[in-house]
Fold:
Amino acid sequence: MKKDLMLLPIKSLIVGMFFAIGIIATSAIGITITTTFTDGDTLTAASLNELRTALVNLPNWIKGDTATDAVYTDGNVGIGTTSPRVALDINGAMAFTSETLTGSTPDVSVSNFYHVSASADETITEFANGTEGQKITVMITGTCGGIAGFTIKHNATKIYLGGSTDFTATSRCSSADITILEFIFNGSVWYETNRTEHLGGC
Structure:
């Protein structure tokens, strides 16, 4: 009797492991733990091999340098596809939350898409906290009759603008007027890669 009582916590732990692994394996990779345990059952080699197979075939996810990061260590990741062809293969649309650019050295680590009013009294000299290879889009809009004030300074060591000249938003004559600037970061300098403007003209 004493031996059975000592084994109860061990049995409960193993049953719990089977239950948890069964949920993870079934949802992640379609492997099902078929064994169901009840009171008094004895673990068998076949049952343990089921558990081993499920553990071996779990996806290669590990924690990153911080507890909130998840890292896939092998193969490709697919979203909306079961046959990812590259490291990240997305079958569908992507959307980025729009953030507002404020201050002379705005933090661009929080998004890849930024919005600002042409009449904003801001002069940007640097995009802070970028990651090498990161791309950002800056959309500049305004209200009808808005006075331009938003500026991005050209600096060969911080922000390299096309034409090697500062960008200053022109006055908006229509709420539909828009300028879109795109940049990529090489680890030290942000380079303008594209500029699109739709201005009605005053």
